[in-house]
Fold this sequence. Notes:
Elements (H helix, E strand, L loop, with lengths): L3 E2 L3 H6 L3 E5 L2 E6 L3 H10 L1 E5 L4 E6 L3 H8 L12 E7 L5 E11 L2 E6 L4 H15 L4 E4 L4 E7 L3 H6 L4 E3 L17 E6 L2 E6 L8 E7 L3 H11 L5 E3 L2 H10 L41 H8 L6 E7 L10 E3 L8 E10 L6 E7 L9 E6 L2 E8 L9
Parallel strand pairs: 1-3, 4-15
Antiparallel strand pairs: 2-3, 4-10, 5-8, 5-9, 6-7, 7-8, 10-14, 11-12, 12-13, 13-14, 16-19, 16-21, 17-18, 17-20, 18-19, 20-21
Helix pairs in contact: 2-7
Amino acid sequence: MTEQHSPLHDEHVALGAALTAFAGWQMPLRYTSDLAEHTAVRTAAGLFDLSHMGEIEVTGQDAGAYLDRALVGNLSGLRVLGARYTMVVQEDGGVIDDLVVYRTGETTYLVVANASNHAVVLAELRDRAAATGLDVQVEDRSAATGLVAVQGPHALAVVEALPGLAPDPDGPADVTPATLRYYACLPMRFEGRPVLVARTGYTGEDGFEFFVDADGTPALWRALLAAGADHGLVPAGLSARDSLRLEAGMPLYGNELDRTTTPHDAGLGRVVRLDKVDADGEPVPFVGRDALAARAHSAPARVLVGLQGLGRRAARHGYAVHASTQPDAPVVGTVTSGAPSPTLGHPVAMAYVTPEVSAEGTELAVDVRGRREPVRVVALPFYRRPR
């Protein structure tokens, strides 16, 4: 199958990016070095192309009520221009994808899906809409939409320096990027084009994501690079994005989340709203409700934990976790993500382990290519940005 190209493909080539295949797309892995790009985001700012993500618009008088039935969260209760992290699950509670949903109007929502699950989520949302009989339309806007993100402590300064960015005449007059709340969005204009600016991200830093029409994405990208030149902004690829989200303890679908994993397994039971009710005050029968209600009140079979490497060799996805460094120590879990932490200076990993070894401070071991490397269970996230 031919890989898809981002609207910014020619920009990446011109910048000398190393490109890689990812979820059916050809995307930038890095431009200079993983360390330089990671460090720039932690200390200044990085610019990411996220145009491979899926954008699905849900509209209609019953859009909120429908999403309450289709997803685990309470989306009808989301304020206009608010955003919410949520999930779409199967009937047994297994995660099909984790999502961010923006309420862009009274009867309009934007559902952002992971690139690898875009087609599956779109099909699920359409099937579930048809099954409800509610007044709702589900439209795929992915091909027509570009998405770029500015992340880092200088992100706001970069956005405020962006020429051509102006308020939308129909947007709230009292909100600016500086006053925009975390997990909220703001309609604006860039060089006359509509752009939705959201204060969201996947790095653990402050940042902004820009949804713009695909044709306008290159001009926005170039303008952001120019505006950020005096603020330390650099283009950053998928490699830095992954190490940043790992330090921030953020799950990655296919690693910490999959169809065999419920939100509760991943320590994200808070996103499941068993208390949501319909207009008549009756519990909303959302997909997966019964299984998740049972799971919420049962003892976990495994727990997602953070692991701090006590040596220099990093654990990686799929490596076995053992009860100790002793040769006969039993396997007690599996690493889901792991890498050296550029910010902290030692290896970090996330892993599912059995409950009896999940307490903070517990010393375990990871089999790194045949050698048991000592690790310690620590709280997630590994990194929190200074406030």
